[in-house]
Amino acid sequence: MFAEERQQAITELLASAGKVTVADLAQRFEITRETVRRDLDQLEQLGSLRRVHGGAVSTLSSSTREESHLVRSTLHADDKARIARAAFNLIPAADTSILLDAGSSTGLLAELIAQSPSEHQHLLITHALPIATSISANPELPIEFIGGRIRGLTGAASGSRTVSELDGLSADIAFVGTNAIDPSFGLSTPDPMEADVKRAIVAAAKRVVVLADASKFNERSLVRFAELAEIDTLITTGTPDASLASALADADVEVLYA
Asked: Where would a tag sit more exposed on the chain, N or C end, judged by fewer CB atoms within 10 A?
């Protein structure tokens, strides 16, 4: 196998597994470890991976990597639509205060709420401009916007003002997005200021529902904003592996499959 073919195969392995080791690659391709290291060095120079001790990880697994709201809305779109529908079905059949976190799945949920007539008076509360825009399309729905400094990447407010306003709330239910969910690390996100906001949302709700497709499982972003025990329900489309399933059960988290 030529070096170019081998490096392409390594890139494909990283795309599916997220991580490779020098030892495994040497055995797989029947080459020396030094040759593997040269391949990894060349791929790192091309930006195809990031070297770590003993191997390499995909650049997509960086703890600080964060996609824009527009990009995230196109990823796993079918799964997110199903998750949003399942979340919509959890809204109580009564007058309810609903906290909506920023995110693509919560954005789809906001659209469903705005498009669906209800005999009940729901108060929608959010710090996310895209979500506020969706809700405001329905003049019958009252909306409370939590202010602060808007991040261009996500279109969401953050900072001390945002957290302070959330600290004064006690909403009936919160729908929260996450960048990652890990058995031991819990729920996390790349940006410290957004982590503060998510932490405040979790604390401000009587029931916390997390919306997360399976791509978030067994991942860690830079900043933890909640332990598994702090959430009540996880809505997803994928089946957690044994480790995550056990951790969710131990934390008494209800798992709903969309």
From this structure: N
